[in-house]
Structures are given as structure tokens and as C-alpha cells.
Amino acid sequence: MNTSIETAIAKGRRIVIIVYSFQPKTEKLIRSILESILKQYDKAYLYDSVYSVLFEAIMNCVKANAKRVFFEEKKLNIKDAEDYSYGIRVFKEEIGNRNLRELCEKGREKNIYIKIVYTHKQNGLKIELFNTAEILKQEERRIRAKLSIGQRYENLFDFYNDNSDSTEGEGLGLVLSLLMLKGEGVDPSDFRIGSKNGVTKTRIEIPFDEHYKTERSTYAMDLNQSN
Question: Which of 6, 25, 33, 90 would you call most buried, defined as having the most Cβ atoms within 10 angstroms of its Cβ?
């Protein structure tokens, strides 16, 4: 991590990076930024749990971007049910980690990327991912459904015990990661994902103390005041 980023973190500034594919050097940078921010506020113990959630969120974006390029190359309409059913099966059969990176790099020419924004202060951390490849509605519904299920559990053992027959698919890794955060006392409902105007936004908020106001709680407060 370069000195300018370290200085920006020390001064409490927002950190913004653009990701096209999840190369090892990119992952190292993302890890270093998170580690430095958490250390600055004496929250290093949260690193493993927070990074686990962040990694899963990034991989969801990376796969969405790779799918977009893959479908275009195969001349398939990703929004057509029949094309999607066929294309996603072929995608899962053909794509490994190397191919995933190659497809995402091709997305650079099509302006398909992930913008990661770290906003931090003494009482909390917010990480936002803005993905220019909009998540498909059916995939968003599956992720939301899994997250809704996951929020009912207190630990990984109980979740696996009740969901052993559905341990694959979009969103599962996020559920397991959010349960890790829950074990650290972080409310998993402060994780949000949604799409608007062609962009998918993922938000992870980590309060460091009781004074931190999440976007969700701020919105609810504004709504109550307007009523």
C-alpha cells in the first residue's frame, strides 16, 4: 500500500479504488486498506469477519461482471429466461478462476467495473461497492432470500444443520460471513444490496460504538419525523 493511501487513512479521508478483476495484487491492496483502517480505530480483531463479508460481496460482483461479458460473447440475452437458463449452465461448466479474471479484464473495454468506497471515522466504518454490471432481479431475489434466512440464526452450526440440502448458490457465502459478524456483535441487517439505474450497490456498515448511525437507522428516523 502506497504512502498516499496510508496518509489518507490516517487523516480520516474516504478511500476509493476501482476494480476490474480480482487479481492477487488487487486483493492485497483491499486487505491492506481494511487492515489499516481497523487498526487505526483499535478494531483489528474484526478484520477476519469484515474481510470475509467484503470478499464475498466482491466475488458476487466479479461473477456478475464475468457473466455479462460471457453472455455477450456467446451472443445470448442474459435477460431472456431461455437464454439465461442455457447460458448459466454453460458458464458454470466452463468458467474457473483464471477464466473469471480474463472475462473481467475484457469488461474493462466495456466500462464494467467495481468501485469500492471506504468511509471511516471514530465510531464506525462503511464500505460501499458500486458495480456497473447490474445484478439480475432473480439473482438479487435469491441473495435477499438467503440473507433473510441467515438473519434468523445465531451460529453457523444451526444454519448448516437446517440448510444442509442448499449449500450452493448465490448468497450462501455472504450468509456464512454475516453470521461471523453476528458473532462479533454486529447486526447483519446493516448489510444491504440492491440495484438502481443500472448499478448494483452493496453496503456493509460496521459500528464501532453506540454513537454510529447506520444509513438504515438514519433513513428510518427521517421517515418517522416526516410522518
Answer: 33
The 3 state secondary structure assigned to the chain is CCHHHHHHHHCCCCEEEEECCCCHHHHHHHHHHHHHHHHHCCCHHHHHHHHHHHHHHHHHHHHHHHHHHHHHHCCCCCCCHHHHHHHHHHHHHHCCHHHHHHHHHHHHHHCCCEEEEEEEECCEEEEEEEECCCCCHHHHHHHHHHHHHHCCCCCHHHHHHHCCCCCCCCCHHHHHHHHHHHHCCCCHHHEEEEEECCEEEEEEEEECCCCCCCHHHHHHHHHHHHC
pLDDT at position 168 is 46
Please give the Cα distance from 176 to 156 (Å, whole number).
7
For residues 14 and 212, give the distance between their C-alpha atoms in angstroms, rounded to a whole number: 17
Q: What is the CATH T-level fold of the domain 3-137+187-226, as seen in this structure?
A: Heat Shock Protein 90 (3.30.565)
Q: d(Cα 16, Cα 129) in Å, to the nearest integer?
A: 10
Reference 132, options 105, 153, 112; nearest CA is 112
Amino acid at residue number 102? E
Which residues of the chain are under the pLDDT cut of 70?
A: 97-98, 156, 160, 163-172, 217-227
For residue 140, count other CB atoms closer than 10 A to its CB. 17
